[in-house]
Amino acid sequence: CWICVATINKGRRAHQNLRKSFSPSSSLILQQSMALHRFSFSTLFLLSLTLLTTTTLSLSTVYDLLPKYGLPSGLLPDSVTNFTLSDDGRFVVRLARSCEIEFDYRVRYDRTVSGRISYGSITELEGIQVKRLFIWLDVDEIKVDLPPTDSIYFKVGFINKKLGIDQFKTVHSCGVSGCSWKSFLQLPGMVNEAEMLITE
């Protein structure tokens, strides 16, 4: 039956065309596309997990971390928005804004504070200054005695300034940075303070 033969031949041609459409090269492209999709999804998932971990760390443990290193939690103001810590102890703290706190000395925090933390000390410190007279001096290092005492030390250049540690045990609110009239009312004590800064 010539009609049956024609139908069979037509079916064979359709099958051959279908096989051509799924040639090895097309199959390879499909496999590569699927692999790229899986890679993109995995990358996105890991990135999201990393961001979530960083955010959780910054909001939950930033003030708990310092005591674990033997340091008072009040070394940082209450305006921390983000915190990261590397395996080698390097850390970066980001604040909502630069601000100041009045301890025994007036302390200024830049918007970004960084350094390297180890038990009992913070070295390579950047982003914290202490005000003496009319001058803001960079604090290079903060450390405590081991075993612990009632003192904490701010290293400014070659000077180690001894302070009472109790004032740093509470996390303080941080005021907006700016010029204070209080500085201009301390002129009579300027010489004595300068001598104390050098000798202590």
From TrEMBL:
Gene3D superfamilies reported for this sequence: At5g01610-like
Lineage, uppermost ranks: Eukaryota, Viridiplantae, Streptophyta, Embryophyta, Tracheophyta
Keywords noted in UniProt: Membrane, Transmembrane, Transmembrane helix
Taxonomic superkingdom: Eukaryota
Pfam families membership: DUF538
Transmembrane segments: 44-66
Descriptive protein name: Uncharacterized protein
